[in-house]
Amino acid sequence: MTPHRSGPRLSTVIMAHPRRRAAAEALGEAHPALAARVVTDPEPLGPPSALRTARLAWRSVSPDATHHLVLQDDAVLSPDFAGTVAALAAARPRDAISLFTEWGSRTANAVRAAALLGHAWAPVVDDYLPSVALVLPASLARGFEEYAAAKAAPDATDDVTLLDYLHDVDRVVPVAGPVDHANPPSLVGNDVMGPRSAACLAPAGDPGGTVLPPMRAVPYFCWWEQLAVVHLRDPASPGGWRRVPAEEALLERGIGRERVVAALRRALEGVPHRELIHERVSDVLLAEVWTTAYALGVVTRDLGGFPDLARPAARQALATLAPGALRRVVPVRRLAAAGELLFPLVAAAVLEGAADAETAVSPS
Fold first, then answer.
1. How many other C-beta atoms can be found within 10 angstroms of the C-beta atom of residue 92?
2. Cβ-based neighbour number of residue 52 at 10 Å
3. CA 307 to the chain's CA centroid
4. How far apart are the C-alpha atoms of 227 and 213, rounded to whole Å?
């Protein structure tokens, strides 16, 4: 139990496979203020399943806790993490708070839009609940085991089951993320996704700040297919979202493909290292990354303001867009350099999209 004179009383569990128990214990020892306990897979010889361990982790709530934190053994925590979590839980005491969202997720672009507009929080908009580091009110944490036992399929994942369980709870992520992902070899087959690092590691912001307004459109780079798409809010679609090509979504917003491509050509004329960009990233992929960032600018403008790239969190969040998009097609050793190389284009795309959104007229 993490003691606090006032505010949340946090209990913490680190969930791990027995093969990673040493890593889990080292994580707890590095952050003694958490007083974390380690729980391991109760059936380590069974088929790989994070849900088995998650069920045990979420029911292991200290009796007098107001909130329960579950960390996965590959989480990387910021300095003074215990104090940061306490402040975040105090600011949003009834919410499910994901402390990590990976750089290529839909929620990562919600974080980027929030950072560009100066909000402290973003809504979770994925079809799973990011659970590398997750805080729940104690009563909700205790109820997960019963729900999972009754509702979860044998092959269900913990993050999707948590989303289903918490469907009527506000699910948020702080823009200034206090958790990264160590990216060790996956025990459940996730290596095919490439490295999954944080969308926005930034100094702790004001947890009492505002939440990004509800999003009706979420730009997304589909890193399975290497395509720019947009998820549109649609109650009639599975999960409440309808996926369309970004070109189609932009056209519905009054912005044709020719306008987007012309903006890319202009931007390429002015960015440094243009030839190196063409050597490192194919023109096809470059256009898809540009379109994703451009659509992010449009959506950000539609959410109520013009993107402000002077905000440190905004620059940090945008810096991870290209690496998060290209993590399956660019070698890991070159991913950071590719991100730095493409950052000027990503930033230009966001600004171009926001500027065009101010003048575009949607078709009647």
1. 19
2. 20
3. 19
4. 26
List of residues 6+ apart from 359 with CB closer than 8 A? none
Q: How far apart are the first and last CA of the chain?
A: 58
* CATH 3.90.550.10 at 10-193, yes or no: yes
Q: What is the pLDDT of residues 165-210, one digit of tens each?
A: 999 999 999 999 999 999 766 555 567 778 999 999 987 778 999 9
Cβ atoms 111, 197 nearer than 8 A: no
Pairwise CA distance, residues 299 & 305, whole Å:
10
**DSSP letter string over 30-56?**
H-GGG--EEEE-S-TTSS--HHHHHHH
- Residue pair 142/61 in contact (Cβ under 8 Å)? The answer is yes
Distance of CA 353 to the CA centre of its chain: 22
Please choose, from the candidates 167, 246, 172, the residue with its C-alpha nearest in 3D space to the C-alpha of residue 212.
Answer: 172
Which residue matches tokens 């000027």?
Answer: 344
> Would you list the domain boundaries of the chain?
10-193, 217-359
- Strand segments, DSSP code E, in 64-213 are 67-72, 75-77, 96-98, 121-123, 133-137, 171-174, 179-181
Q: pLDDT tens digit string along 344-358?
A: 999 999 999 999 999
Q: What are the structure tokens assigned to 2, written together? A: 């993490």
Contact 130, 180 (CB under 8 A): no
* Rounded Cα distance, 202 and 103, in Å: 13
d(CA 215, CA 123): 8
pTM: 0.94
Cα separation of 15 and 25, whole Å?
10
Question: How far is Cα 242 from Cα 230, in angstroms, rounded to an integer?
Answer: 8
Cα–Cα dist 301/241, whole Å: 20
How large is the C-alpha radius of gyration of the chain? Answer: 21
